[in-house]
Amino acid sequence: MKLITGNAPHVRANDTTSKVMTDVIIALIPAIIGAWYFFGGYALFLILLGAVTGELFELFIMRVLRNDKSFTPNGSAAITGILLAMNVSSATPWWVFLIGLAFALGIAKHAFGGLGMNIFNPALAGRAFLLVSFPVAMTTWYKPVLSFTKWIDVQTSATPLAILKETGNVNVGYWDLFIGNRGGSIGETSVLLLLVGFIYLVIRKRIKIMIPISYISTVFVMSSVFYFVNPSFGTPLFHILSGGLMLGALFMATDMVTSPMTIKGQAIFGVGIGVMTLLIRYFAGYPEGVSLSILLMNAFVPLIDKYTMPRIFGEVES
């Protein structure tokens, strides 16, 4: 019998990084269309700018700065650009957005070694950088324009979370929260369209479903307790539908690189994000806590993986 040896991996699949990234982009299309309708042509411009410029930035970083002449784009930088655009206000100037994108790719991703090596979600790291560096642009919100042809609406409007924090009251109904007719970041408002894309990723088996389940469940249980104690904290359904919680739960926290590998670890990760999200919303000066909570839990992922990895059969305990 002739034995043939070769280099690992010996079990191969048809999947490639480009195919996975293509599925993620397809899943984001409903929310992108929603962002275009609710916030006008400028929102679509920012998203397309993020996708194209993200790939160009990464091509420059890899071929020029890292001297990898064999590198070819795989779509991951485009997704970073799209997600960062979906996490900013429609009041954000395009040049400010590009500064955040350069930070996301250059510092949060490639300073750690590139795809698969980064500790923090690049898009959320870019958003956090912009929030600190350009707080006015990042916290000025425009009312939905409800038009594909209108460029931008100059009427400002506080987000539902900001109004709840300031007044203890809610100024928008659950239906508007669900479909996206409210102020907020351009890609976070429509829960309906985000769910459509999420279902596609579930069908394609591209998503870690335990993370959104544990995250949303934690928010529901914890906010129920706080609402029972004091209704001014807001109802559980309000907290689930408001802000960037659904975008964070379905597309940001589930990032393959920056989330735990085991089911148990993913559950711990989701619970941690949920608890911190509400603590920030309830007691911090900023009304939203999704981005910061995910970034904080990203830092704990190596520790979570270490203590939730299953024991190898036959391993001798040291």
TrEMBL record:
Keyword Translocase annotated: yes
E.C. number: 7.-.-.-
Pfam families linked to this entry: NQR2_RnfD_RnfE
Enzyme class: translocase
Chief location of this protein within or outside the cell: membrane
Compartments reported by the entry: Cell membrane
Keywords: Cell membrane, Electron transport, Flavoprotein, FMN, Membrane, Phosphoprotein, Translocase, Transmembrane, Transmembrane helix, Transport
Modified residues (FMN phosphoryl threonine): 159
Topology of the protein relative to the lipid bilayer: Multi-pass membrane protein
TM annotation in the entry: 20-39, 94-112, 124-142, 185-203, 210-229, 235-253, 265-284
Entry keyword annotation includes Translocase: yes
NCBIfam families assigned to the protein according to its UniProt record, in alphabetical order: rnfD
Family: Belongs to the NqrB/RnfD family.
Task of the protein: Part of a membrane-bound complex that couples electron transfer with translocation of ions across the membrane.
Quaternary structure (record): The complex is composed of six subunits: RnfA, RnfB, RnfC, RnfD, RnfE and RnfG.
Protein name, entry field: Ion-translocating oxidoreductase complex subunit D
Gene that encodes it: rnfD
